[in-house]
Please model this.
Amino acid sequence: MFAAFERELNIHRDSGYHRLGGLLQRGDVDAGFRERALTPPAAYLDFLCMVGPGVFFGGALTIYPLSSDRWRSVESELARLRKVSTEAIFPFGYDGTTESRRCFEATSGKDQVYWFSWEEKAKRSFSAGFREWIEECYAFDPFNVPFTSIEVKFNPVIDLGSKMRARFKELSDLLA
Model:
């Protein structure tokens, strides 16, 4: 169902580049959203149960858990959003920038992904569907390079992908 995304996770599962939050159970997720009077799209629920929330691509994408005592979550970000906006949306993720969130309409169950700007306090349409958007995230991964090594002229073959991921992780750790 999320073939490209899952393939990427399998390639870098043990590197820390993707930090998975664990799979969620559909009944628990459905009940949690109902308690909060939210109707998420089916594809997003599938993702939470098949891949799970987490921090992906070294922090360039976060998909929130429904609630958490330690991390940002749908619940914590929704409370924050309601203080500044009356938009009928709920945030489900963070795109690695300092001032925006990915959102869905709060009660429609529609699959459209929105971008919410904290600075402008406004939402904008971002993608027609969650499944397509999440699969495209793999294509925009800065380290999504179709090679495992590269030959540099007059130098031995080096594993550039691993070196780039290690450096990105060092930078991510410094900023965390």
Q: What stands out?
A: The chain has six helices and seven strands.
